[in-house]
Design brief:
- α2 (78-91) links the parallel β4 and β5 (97-100).
- By secondary structure, this protein is an alpha/beta fold.
- α1 (46-59) runs parallel beside α2 (78-91) and α4 (112-120) packs across α6.
- It has eleven helices and ten strands.
- The radius of gyration is 19 Å and the shape is globular.
- Bound molecules: iron/sulfur cluster.
- Iron/sulfur cluster binds next to loops.
Length: 292
Protein backbone atom coordinates (compact mmCIF):
# COMPACT_ATOMS: atom_id res chain seq x y z
CA UNK A 1 0.00 0.00 0.00
CA UNK A 2 1.14 3.51 -0.77
CA UNK A 3 -1.25 4.65 1.93
CA UNK A 4 0.81 5.57 5.01
CA UNK A 5 0.05 3.71 8.24
CA UNK A 6 -0.82 6.70 10.39
CA UNK A 7 -3.81 8.34 8.78
CA UNK A 8 -6.54 10.41 10.43
CA UNK A 9 -10.11 9.30 10.19
CA UNK A 10 -13.30 10.25 12.03
CA UNK A 11 -14.04 7.84 14.91
CA UNK A 12 -17.13 6.40 13.20
CA UNK A 13 -15.00 5.26 10.24
CA UNK A 14 -13.09 2.73 12.33
CA UNK A 15 -14.26 -0.22 10.19
CA UNK A 16 -13.94 1.41 6.76
CA UNK A 17 -11.27 0.47 4.26
CA UNK A 18 -9.00 3.51 4.01
CA UNK A 19 -7.85 4.67 0.62
CA UNK A 20 -5.58 7.69 0.34
CA UNK A 21 -6.64 9.72 -2.70
CA UNK A 22 -5.25 13.11 -1.65
CA UNK A 23 -2.44 14.38 0.52
CA UNK A 24 -2.91 17.48 2.66
CA UNK A 25 -5.76 19.96 2.86
CA UNK A 26 -6.61 22.68 0.33
CA UNK A 27 -7.28 25.15 3.16
CA UNK A 28 -4.59 24.36 5.73
CA UNK A 29 -5.20 27.61 7.63
CA UNK A 30 -7.22 26.64 10.69
CA UNK A 31 -5.26 27.91 13.69
CA UNK A 32 -5.91 24.81 15.80
CA UNK A 33 -4.92 22.22 13.18
CA UNK A 34 -1.52 20.58 12.86
CA UNK A 35 -2.57 17.67 10.67
CA UNK A 36 -1.04 18.75 7.39
CA UNK A 37 1.68 21.22 8.30
CA UNK A 38 4.33 21.33 5.62
CA UNK A 39 2.22 19.10 3.36
CA UNK A 40 1.24 20.66 0.08
CA UNK A 41 -2.19 19.59 -1.11
CA UNK A 42 -2.00 17.17 -4.02
CA UNK A 43 -4.04 14.34 -5.45
CA UNK A 44 -2.37 10.94 -5.09
CA UNK A 45 -1.16 9.71 -8.51
CA UNK A 46 -3.80 7.56 -10.14
CA UNK A 47 -1.42 4.63 -10.60
CA UNK A 48 -0.84 4.54 -6.84
CA UNK A 49 -4.58 4.49 -6.18
CA UNK A 50 -4.99 1.63 -8.67
CA UNK A 51 -2.19 -0.36 -7.05
CA UNK A 52 -3.69 0.21 -3.59
CA UNK A 53 -7.13 -0.87 -4.79
CA UNK A 54 -5.65 -4.03 -6.30
CA UNK A 55 -3.94 -4.79 -3.00
CA UNK A 56 -7.13 -4.15 -1.02
CA UNK A 57 -9.04 -6.45 -3.39
CA UNK A 58 -6.48 -9.19 -2.76
CA UNK A 59 -6.68 -9.06 1.06
CA UNK A 60 -10.15 -7.75 2.03
CA UNK A 61 -13.12 -10.10 1.86
CA UNK A 62 -16.05 -8.21 0.33
CA UNK A 63 -15.55 -4.77 1.92
CA UNK A 64 -18.73 -2.70 1.92
CA UNK A 65 -17.37 0.76 2.71
CA UNK A 66 -14.37 2.79 1.59
CA UNK A 67 -13.15 5.98 3.24
CA UNK A 68 -11.36 8.41 0.97
CA UNK A 69 -8.53 9.76 3.10
CA UNK A 70 -7.06 13.25 3.20
CA UNK A 71 -8.01 16.68 4.62
CA UNK A 72 -10.85 17.19 2.14
CA UNK A 73 -10.73 14.52 -0.60
CA UNK A 74 -14.42 14.90 -1.45
CA UNK A 75 -13.63 18.48 -2.41
CA UNK A 76 -11.75 17.29 -5.48
CA UNK A 77 -13.37 18.58 -8.67
CA UNK A 78 -15.75 15.95 -10.05
CA UNK A 79 -13.55 15.56 -13.11
CA UNK A 80 -10.95 14.06 -10.75
CA UNK A 81 -13.26 12.52 -8.15
CA UNK A 82 -15.61 10.56 -10.40
CA UNK A 83 -12.83 8.50 -12.04
CA UNK A 84 -11.73 7.51 -8.51
CA UNK A 85 -15.27 6.42 -7.67
CA UNK A 86 -15.42 4.47 -10.95
CA UNK A 87 -12.20 2.70 -9.99
CA UNK A 88 -13.68 1.71 -6.61
CA UNK A 89 -16.69 0.23 -8.43
CA UNK A 90 -14.50 -1.66 -10.85
CA UNK A 91 -11.95 -3.01 -8.36
CA UNK A 92 -14.16 -3.48 -5.28
CA UNK A 93 -17.64 -4.39 -6.57
CA UNK A 94 -18.89 -5.27 -3.05
CA UNK A 95 -18.47 -1.65 -1.90
CA UNK A 96 -21.81 0.15 -1.59
CA UNK A 97 -20.68 3.20 0.41
CA UNK A 98 -17.90 5.72 -0.06
CA UNK A 99 -17.31 8.50 2.47
CA UNK A 100 -14.68 11.09 3.31
CA UNK A 101 -14.01 14.57 4.60
CA UNK A 102 -15.47 17.54 2.77
CA UNK A 103 -15.13 21.20 3.75
CA UNK A 104 -18.24 23.35 3.93
CA UNK A 105 -16.49 25.73 1.54
CA UNK A 106 -15.93 22.83 -0.90
CA UNK A 107 -19.67 22.20 -1.16
CA UNK A 108 -20.09 25.83 -2.26
CA UNK A 109 -17.77 25.16 -5.20
CA UNK A 110 -19.82 22.21 -6.41
CA UNK A 111 -23.01 22.55 -8.45
CA UNK A 112 -26.17 20.64 -7.56
CA UNK A 113 -25.43 18.43 -10.59
CA UNK A 114 -21.93 17.72 -9.18
CA UNK A 115 -23.40 16.65 -5.84
CA UNK A 116 -26.03 14.48 -7.56
CA UNK A 117 -23.29 12.85 -9.62
CA UNK A 118 -21.30 12.08 -6.47
CA UNK A 119 -24.36 10.48 -4.88
CA UNK A 120 -25.06 8.45 -8.02
CA UNK A 121 -21.46 7.22 -7.99
CA UNK A 122 -21.71 5.87 -4.44
CA UNK A 123 -20.86 8.78 -2.13
CA UNK A 124 -23.40 8.01 0.57
CA UNK A 125 -22.16 10.38 3.27
CA UNK A 126 -19.44 12.86 4.11
CA UNK A 127 -17.91 14.36 7.24
CA UNK A 128 -17.66 18.13 7.71
CA UNK A 129 -15.45 19.86 10.28
CA UNK A 130 -18.03 22.52 11.03
CA UNK A 131 -16.64 22.93 14.59
CA UNK A 132 -18.97 25.77 15.65
CA UNK A 133 -21.85 27.92 14.40
CA UNK A 134 -20.79 31.30 15.84
CA UNK A 135 -19.14 33.59 13.31
CA UNK A 136 -16.74 35.51 15.60
CA UNK A 137 -15.10 32.23 16.64
CA UNK A 138 -15.12 30.74 13.13
CA UNK A 139 -13.42 33.86 11.83
CA UNK A 140 -10.95 34.01 14.72
CA UNK A 141 -9.87 30.41 14.02
CA UNK A 142 -9.71 30.99 10.22
CA UNK A 143 -12.06 28.13 9.55
CA UNK A 144 -12.91 29.46 6.09
CA UNK A 145 -16.68 29.18 6.45
CA UNK A 146 -19.46 31.05 8.21
CA UNK A 147 -22.61 29.96 10.01
CA UNK A 148 -24.58 31.06 6.92
CA UNK A 149 -22.38 28.80 4.77
CA UNK A 150 -23.19 25.82 7.00
CA UNK A 151 -26.90 26.60 6.79
CA UNK A 152 -26.76 26.96 3.00
CA UNK A 153 -24.50 24.05 2.09
CA UNK A 154 -25.67 21.19 4.33
CA UNK A 155 -29.23 21.26 2.91
CA UNK A 156 -27.71 21.03 -0.59
CA UNK A 157 -26.05 17.78 0.44
CA UNK A 158 -29.40 16.55 1.78
CA UNK A 159 -31.15 17.49 -1.47
CA UNK A 160 -28.56 15.49 -3.39
CA UNK A 161 -29.11 12.45 -1.15
CA UNK A 162 -25.74 12.68 0.61
CA UNK A 163 -25.88 12.26 4.39
CA UNK A 164 -23.43 14.09 6.59
CA UNK A 165 -21.76 13.97 9.98
CA UNK A 166 -20.59 17.15 11.69
CA UNK A 167 -17.93 18.03 14.23
CA UNK A 168 -18.51 20.34 17.18
CA UNK A 169 -15.44 21.60 18.99
CA UNK A 170 -16.07 22.40 22.67
CA UNK A 171 -14.12 25.44 23.87
CA UNK A 172 -13.70 26.68 20.30
CA UNK A 173 -14.49 30.32 21.14
CA UNK A 174 -12.00 30.56 24.00
CA UNK A 175 -12.32 31.58 27.64
CA UNK A 176 -15.40 33.57 28.57
CA UNK A 177 -17.05 33.19 25.17
CA UNK A 178 -18.22 29.59 25.18
CA UNK A 179 -21.75 30.15 26.49
CA UNK A 180 -22.69 32.54 23.68
CA UNK A 181 -20.91 30.41 21.10
CA UNK A 182 -22.72 27.25 22.29
CA UNK A 183 -26.16 28.90 22.17
CA UNK A 184 -25.59 30.35 18.71
CA UNK A 185 -24.14 27.08 17.45
CA UNK A 186 -27.15 25.13 18.74
CA UNK A 187 -29.43 27.46 16.73
CA UNK A 188 -27.46 26.68 13.56
CA UNK A 189 -27.01 22.92 14.04
CA UNK A 190 -30.69 22.56 15.06
CA UNK A 191 -31.75 23.55 11.55
CA UNK A 192 -29.77 20.68 10.00
CA UNK A 193 -30.15 16.90 9.85
CA UNK A 194 -26.73 15.41 10.64
CA UNK A 195 -26.47 11.65 11.09
CA UNK A 196 -24.18 12.33 14.02
CA UNK A 197 -22.34 15.18 15.72
CA UNK A 198 -18.91 14.22 16.98
CA UNK A 199 -17.78 16.29 19.93
CA UNK A 200 -14.11 17.16 20.37
CA UNK A 201 -12.34 19.65 22.62
CA UNK A 202 -10.22 22.55 21.45
CA UNK A 203 -6.56 21.64 22.05
CA UNK A 204 -3.44 23.63 21.12
CA UNK A 205 -1.49 20.70 19.67
CA UNK A 206 2.26 21.13 19.22
CA UNK A 207 3.13 22.91 16.01
CA UNK A 208 -0.22 24.57 15.38
CA UNK A 209 -0.56 28.36 15.35
CA UNK A 210 -3.03 28.25 18.19
CA UNK A 211 -0.32 26.89 20.45
CA UNK A 212 1.85 29.92 19.75
CA UNK A 213 -1.11 32.18 20.53
CA UNK A 214 -1.85 30.36 23.78
CA UNK A 215 1.80 30.57 24.83
CA UNK A 216 2.05 34.26 23.94
CA UNK A 217 -1.24 35.05 25.68
CA UNK A 218 -2.96 36.15 22.45
CA UNK A 219 -5.61 33.43 22.94
CA UNK A 220 -6.91 32.21 26.25
CA UNK A 221 -8.07 28.60 26.29
CA UNK A 222 -11.37 27.95 28.00
CA UNK A 223 -10.82 26.07 31.27
CA UNK A 224 -12.09 22.48 31.24
CA UNK A 225 -15.18 23.32 33.31
CA UNK A 226 -16.14 25.98 30.75
CA UNK A 227 -15.63 23.46 27.92
CA UNK A 228 -18.00 21.06 29.70
CA UNK A 229 -20.51 23.87 30.19
CA UNK A 230 -20.13 24.75 26.48
CA UNK A 231 -20.94 21.20 25.35
CA UNK A 232 -23.79 20.88 27.87
CA UNK A 233 -25.34 24.16 26.68
CA UNK A 234 -24.94 23.15 23.04
CA UNK A 235 -26.66 19.80 23.57
CA UNK A 236 -29.35 21.20 25.88
CA UNK A 237 -30.36 23.64 23.14
CA UNK A 238 -30.02 21.30 20.17
CA UNK A 239 -33.38 20.39 18.67
CA UNK A 240 -32.37 18.10 15.78
CA UNK A 241 -32.61 14.32 16.03
CA UNK A 242 -29.08 12.98 15.83
CA UNK A 243 -26.39 10.84 17.42
CA UNK A 244 -23.96 12.47 19.81
CA UNK A 245 -20.52 10.89 19.72
CA UNK A 246 -18.45 12.38 22.51
CA UNK A 247 -15.84 9.80 23.34
CA UNK A 248 -13.01 11.41 21.38
CA UNK A 249 -9.59 11.28 23.04
CA UNK A 250 -9.43 15.08 23.29
CA UNK A 251 -12.44 15.12 25.65
CA UNK A 252 -12.03 14.92 29.41
CA UNK A 253 -15.53 13.45 29.57
CA UNK A 254 -17.35 10.59 27.89
CA UNK A 255 -20.80 11.21 26.46
CA UNK A 256 -22.56 9.19 23.76
CA UNK A 257 -26.23 8.97 23.00
CA UNK A 258 -29.19 9.63 20.78
CA UNK A 259 -31.03 12.95 20.76
CA UNK A 260 -33.58 13.78 21.91
CA UNK A 261 -33.88 10.53 23.93
CA UNK A 262 -30.63 10.86 25.90
CA UNK A 263 -30.43 14.65 26.21
CA UNK A 264 -31.16 14.90 29.94
CA UNK A 265 -28.69 12.15 30.82
CA UNK A 266 -25.90 13.66 28.70
CA UNK A 267 -26.42 17.15 30.11
CA UNK A 268 -26.58 15.78 33.68
CA UNK A 269 -23.32 13.88 33.11
CA UNK A 270 -21.58 17.00 31.84
CA UNK A 271 -22.91 19.09 34.72
CA UNK A 272 -21.66 16.52 37.21
CA UNK A 273 -18.23 16.42 35.53
CA UNK A 274 -18.16 20.21 35.54
CA UNK A 275 -18.76 20.32 39.30
CA UNK A 276 -16.00 17.75 39.88
CA UNK A 277 -13.43 19.41 37.63
CA UNK A 278 -10.30 21.04 38.98
CA UNK A 279 -9.38 23.46 36.19
CA UNK A 280 -5.99 24.34 37.58
CA UNK A 281 -4.93 20.69 37.86
CA UNK A 282 -6.15 19.82 34.36
CA UNK A 283 -4.63 22.77 32.45
CA UNK A 284 -1.18 21.12 32.05
CA UNK A 285 -2.83 17.93 30.76
CA UNK A 286 -4.48 19.80 27.89
CA UNK A 287 -1.08 21.23 26.90
CA UNK A 288 0.44 17.72 26.90
CA UNK A 289 -1.97 16.29 24.33
CA UNK A 290 -0.06 15.46 21.19
CA UNK A 291 -2.29 14.51 18.26
CA UNK A 292 -5.73 15.27 16.88
S1 LIG B 1 -9.06 21.52 10.38
FE1 LIG B 1 -9.61 20.54 8.44
S2 LIG B 1 -9.97 22.28 7.04
FE2 LIG B 1 -8.82 23.09 8.77
S3 LIG B 1 -6.66 22.99 8.13
FE3 LIG B 1 -7.12 21.09 9.28
S4 LIG B 1 -7.69 19.59 7.75
FE4 LIG B 1 -7.83 21.60 6.77
Amino acid sequence: MHTPKHLRRPPHEYASVMLEVTKGCTHNKCLFCNLYQGVEFQPVPLEHVIEDLDEIASVERSPHRVLFVGGNPMGLPNARLVPLLELVREKLPSVSEVGGYLRTADVKLKSDADLAEMAAMGVTDVTLGTECGWDPALERMRKGHTAADILEQCPRLEAAGIKYSLFYLGGFAGAGKCEESARESAKVFSRLHPVRITIMTMTPYPGCKLREEVESGAFELAPESEVMRDVATFIANLSCDTLIVGSHDSNLFRIDGVLPRDREGIVATLEMRQRQTNDEALAPLRMRMLAM
